[in-house]
Amino acid sequence: MTTELPIPSDGIELAPNVRVPAWAVRVQFSRSGGPGGQNVNKLNTKAEIWVHLDDLAGSLNPRAMARLEQLAGRRLTNQRELHLTSETTRSQERNRQEAMLRLRELLVAAMKEPKPRRKTKPSRGAKERRLESKRRRSQVKARRQGRE
């Protein structure tokens, strides 16, 4: 059951500086899984969101897109669509908001440029302190055995 939601005509802002047209985000509601209860077998509260990666390509640079694909993992379908679900609450709207929040967090994490790793080496003082502590430890153990 696909539900139409009121969406601004200029599109949806999924994350800072990431906008897609309204038709690019597909929202669907279905019955939640798990053991039955008063409403679980009657109401379609599970929210599912699909966004095609090609629709995000205009807003994300290629490196961020590669990070997004890696971070998405199993949430990325064979058709290159991000598929996020939420069935934690008993409300359709709250589940939709939760799924949109997860999508936003995923996009923000993908846009964050990782800090480049710089090789470091210990200072001379650090090396000397390490060797001195090894010598001291060696002497302690040697004294236990009765030799000096």
State the gist of this model.
This protein is of the alpha+beta class and 148 residues long. Helices cover 38% and strands 18% of the residues.
What does this entry look like structurally?
Residues 1-8 have low confidence and may be disordered. 12% of the residues are buried. Helices cover 38% and strands 18% of the residues. It has 148 residues and is α+β, with helices and mostly antiparallel strands. Strand 1 (12-15) and strand 2 form a beta hairpin. It folds into 2 domains: 12-111, Double Stranded RNA Binding Domain (2-Layer Sandwich); 123-148. It has a 3-stranded antiparallel sheet.
Layout of helices and strands:
Elements: E1 12-15, E2 18-20, E3 25-30, E4 46-52, H1 53-56, H2 62-72, E5 81-86, H3 92-111, H4 124-144
Antiparallel strand pairs: 1-2, 3-4, 4-5
Helix pairs in contact: 2-3
Whole-number mean pLDDT: 83
Q: According to CATH, what is the topology of the largest domain?
A: Double Stranded RNA Binding Domain
Helix-strand pattern? EEEEHHEHH
Oligomer: single chain
Strand order of the largest sheet: 3-4-5
Extract low-pLDDT stretches.
1-8
Main beta sheet: strand number and arrangement?
A: 3 strands, antiparallel
Query: What is the rounded Rg?
Result: 27 Å
Tally the helices.
Answer: 4
State the CATH class of the largest domain: Alpha Beta
Q: Work out the strand percent.
A: 15-25%
Shape: elongated
Residue share in helix: 25-40%
Label the structural class.
alpha+beta
Total DSSP E strands? 5
Distance between the termini: 82 Å
